[in-house]
Amino acid sequence: MKIIQKTLAFVGLLSLCGLFIYALQDAPTDENFETKLINDYNVYALQVPDDLNFAGEPVPLQNPDILERMDRELLVNTYWQSNGLLMFKRAKKYFPIIEPILAKNGVPDDFKYLAVIESGLTNAVSPAGARGVWQIMKATGRENGLEINTNVDERYNLEKATEVACKYLKKSKEKLGSWTLAAAAYNGGIAGISRRLKAQNVNDYYDLLLGEETGRYLFRIVALKEILSHPDKYGFNFREKDLYKNIPTYKVEVDTAVTNFAKFAQGFGINYKILKLHNPWLREPHLNNKSRKFYLIDIPEAGFYQTGP
What we know:
Layout (H helix, E strand, L loop, with lengths): L1 H24 L7 H7 L13 E2 L2 E2 L5 H15 L2 H24 L7 H8 L18 H6 L14 H19 L2 H10 L1 H11 L11 H18 L19 E6 L6 H6 L5 H7 L16 E6 L9
Antiparallel strand pairs: 1-2, 3-4
Helix pairs in contact: 3-10, 4-7, 5-10, 7-8, 8-9, 8-10
Family: Belongs to the transglycosylase Slt family.
Organism: Gelatiniphilus marinus
Keywords: Signal
């Protein structure tokens, strides 16, 4: 009888443990979010999915070198949790702007993850002088029609910069033959990748011996694609309300100089700071516009910001 009681107790204990594990695995809600935050932290070796691809072009994971390099980027980006959560938050805000521009230009949707690793979806400035979400160099921007000077720098205009990135990527694809190599060329340059391919007598990115940065580049993109596409699989827990929102705006056409953007902003019920948040390409508190060029300035719709008196 005692043996039976002990057995039943043990079974009951296992059942309780199972329920506890199941509770921890539930999707996060307001009720269990704090409990998960405190109790549900573990570090695991990751299983590299065997069907990874970039823009429909498979990653050759049967090659042990490729497998190890892919594993590294999945580990690094999964367990850099604070950065990972920021990527989820920013992606919710900026992907809806980037995705339709890629689609319109016939560039695979996977290239939005290139923007993630280039800048973390921020208006970053590189030591080499590349700027904006797409990290465009001054010469490349000007060659593709962007205005770049001390007064206006359209590399910070996400819509226009995405258009320029699409032009460059399509040109790279045409010259190099694959979207994977086009992505590598975004980091290493079309001429640079072409020289490496010729010198090493290969025609595929994964067969190239490259420096640290360009050598990790595609693996980082694919890792971010995998993680951002499957948050639960990689242990990221968040609610919809935790993500950043894309504030709806309308465009105001300006074809004259603007002497004072602070006063200009007040005319639309916002302040200068908010105007700059939505128009970071306006680099000074005024607009010269001696040529009477047409500019489109984004103004947030009413009710999303509360400004002081």
